[in-house]
Design a protein that fits this description.
This protein is an alpha/beta fold and 431 residues long. The chain contains 14 helices and 14 strands.
C-alpha cells in the first residue's frame, strides 16, 4: 500500500465488516423482494460487482507520485459502477493517489473504526464507520460526527498535503469543509444529480447543498441545469459531463454480426423515470424485434413490461458484462420521462453506446438534445419513439458506426479528469 495513506485494521475489525456486509446483503434482498423484483443471483443486489477487477485492468501496478486526493463519493465503491468510480480511477491514472472514503454500509453491528477494503495502483478504498447509521441520501452529516471522522482520516494521512478534497454528495458537506480547513486545501463539489428530484429526499438537503455550493472553491456540474445555480454564487464553476472508459468499450468491430432478430436494449436502473409508455408502444408496434432491459427493476410499471412476449428484463448486470450486452444490440435506448430529475441528467450509457458504434434513441432533454443525428435520435412522445427506433435501425452503416466511435474518443474519463485538474489549478492557493 502507498505510504501516503496508512489505515491498518485488526482481525476482529475485518470479521465485523464481513458480518456487516452479510447483514446489508440480506436486508437488500428483503427490500428487493418486497419491491416485486426477481431475486436471481447476487449480482442483482448492491455490493456484488467485482470492481477490483476493473481497477486492476485500468490502473498501473506502480502507485502514482503526485499529491493525493481525498474523495468523498456519492456511492459505495462496490455499488453500481458509474461516475464516482470512473472519475476516481481517472484521477489515479492522472498521477494522484486517491482515498475513496466509503461510509455507506449501514449495519446494526458495531463496525470497525476504519479499514482499507481495496488498494491498487493509487486507488485506496477506505471503509469508515459513521456513528448513528445516518441515511447518506436523506440526512446530513452532523458537525460533531464530521469532526470525529476528520481526525480518523487525518490520522492515516502521511507526508504530502492533499491536492483537494472532492465531495459528491451533500451528506459529506461538513466533513469536506473540515478536511479542507484543517489541511488548507481546495474544497471541490462535484454536483452530479438533482438530489431533490429523487423520491423521499427532504427539502433540508437542498439547504445543505446550497451552503456547500457557496463555500466550495470549485463546483463541477454534470449538466447545464446543475451548473446554473452555482454560477450565481460560486467563484468558479466547471461544466464536467460524464464520459466513457474507452478501454472497456472496444468499438464497432466488437459488435456481434450474425443472423438474429433485431435487438433493442437498455442498461441502467429501471425506476419511475423510465419511459414505460414509449417502450411498451415500440414493443407492441414491432412484434418481430426483441427488446432487452438490463437493470434492477425499481418500479412496478416497469416490471409489468416483462409480460410482453418480445420484451425481456434481464436484471442487474455487472459493469464488466455491459460491453458484451451492448455488442448484441442494434439500437441502445435512453428512454427517460421528462422530469426535473431527468432534465438534469447526463446519461453515462449514452457515451458507452456511442463508443460501441451504436445508434442511440433518447428522450429530448437538455443533455441529450446537444447530440445530433445520426449519432443520437431524439423523441418527444411514444409515437416519435417508435419512429426513431425504426430510423435508427434502417440508417445504420459501418461509416456512421465509426463516426460514433470517433466522437466518443473525445469524451473519455481521462479527459474529464484532466479538465478538472486544469480548473483546480486556477483556484486561489491556500498554502
Amino acid at each position: 500500500m502507498s505510504s501516503v495513506f496508512s489505515y491498518p485494521a485488526r482481525l476482529h475489525d475485518r470479521v465485523l465488516t464481513a458480518a456487516g456486509e452479510v447483514e446489508e446483503l440480506a436486508r437488500a434482498a428483503v427490500r428487493h423482494l418486497r419491491a416485486g423484483g426477481r431475486l436471481g443471483s447476487a449480482a442483482a443486489l448492491p455490493g456484488r460487482y467485482g470492481h477490483a477487477e476493473v481497477a486492476s485492468r485500468v490502473l498501473p501496478e506502480d502507485a502514482p507520485t503526485g499529491p493525493p486526493i481525498l474523495y468523498l463519493p456519492a456511492v459505495s465503491w462496490s455499488y453500481r459502477f458509474q461516475r464516482p468510480q470512473h472519475l476516481a480511477l481517472a484521477l489515479a491514472r492522472a498521477g494522484h493517489p486517491v482515498l475513496y472514503v466509503d461510509g455507506f454500509l449501514r449495519s446494526h453491528l458495531l463496525l470497525l473504526r476504519r479499514q482499507v477494503l481495496y488498494s491498487h495502483g493509487g486507488l485506496h478504498v477506505l471503509r469508515i464507520r459513521i456513528p448513528g447509521r445516518p441515511d447518506p441520501y436523506r440526512e446530513p452529516l452532523g458537525r460533531r460526527v464530521a469532526a470525529q471522522l476528520t481526525e480518523m482520516i487525518l490520522d492515516g494521512l502521511h507526508h504530502e498535503r492533499p491536492l483537494m478534497v472532492l465531495v459528491q454528495l451533500p451528506f459529506w458537506a461538513e466533513l469536506g469543509r473540515e478536511l479542507a480547513r484543517r489541511l488548507g486545501i481546495p474544497l471541490v463539489y462535484d454536483r452530479i444529480d438533482l438530489h431533490a428530484g429523487f423520491p423521499g429526499v427532504p427539502a433540508a438537503i437542498e439547504t445543505v447543498e446550497a451552503r456547500l455550493i457557496r463555500q466550495a472553491d470549485l463546483v463541477c456540474a454534470t449538466a447545464g441545469l446543475l451548473a446554473e445555480r452555482p454560477r450565481e454564487v460560486s467563484p468558479q464553476v466547471l461544466l464536467l459531463p460524464n464520459g466513457v472508459d474507452l478501454g472497456a468499450f472496444p468499438g464497432p468491430a466488437a459488435r456481434e454480426e450474425h443472423n438474429r432478430a433485431v435487438t433493442i436494449g437498455y442498461v441502467g436502473a429501471l425506476g419511475p423515470w423510465f419511459d414505460v409508455e414509449a417502450v411498451e408502444a415500440a414493443a407492441r408496434a414491432l412484434p418481430g424485434w426483441r427488446f432487452r432491459l438490463a437493470g434492477q427493476v425499481e418500479d412496478p410499471e416497469v416490471a409489468a413490461l416483462a409480460g410482453l412476449p418480445n420484451l425481456e428484463t434481464v436484471g442487474e448486470i455487472p459493469f464488466g458484462d455491459v460491453p458484451g450486452f451492448l455488442s448484441g444490440l442494434d439500437v441502445a435506448l435512453v428512454p427517460f420521462r421528462d422530469l426535473p430529475l431527468t432534465r438534469a441528467v447526463d446519461p453515462v450509457k449514452l457515451y458507452e453506446a456511442l463508443a460501441m458504434g451504436l445508434p442511440v434513441v433518447a428522450r429530448r432533454l437538455p443533455e441529450t438534445a446537444r447530440w445530433a443525428e445520426p449519432l443520437v435520435y431524439l423523441y418527444d412522445d411514444p409515437e416519435g419513439f417508435v419512429r426513431q427506433v425504426r430510423r435508427a435501425v434502417a440508417e445504420q452503416t459501418p461509416e456512421i458506426a465509426r463516426e460514433r466511435r470517433r466522437v466518443a474518443e473525445g469524451e473519455s474519463w481521462d479527459r474529464r479528469a484532466a479538465d478538472l485538474l486544469r480548473a483546480l489549478a486556477l483556484c486561489p492557493s491556500k498554502a
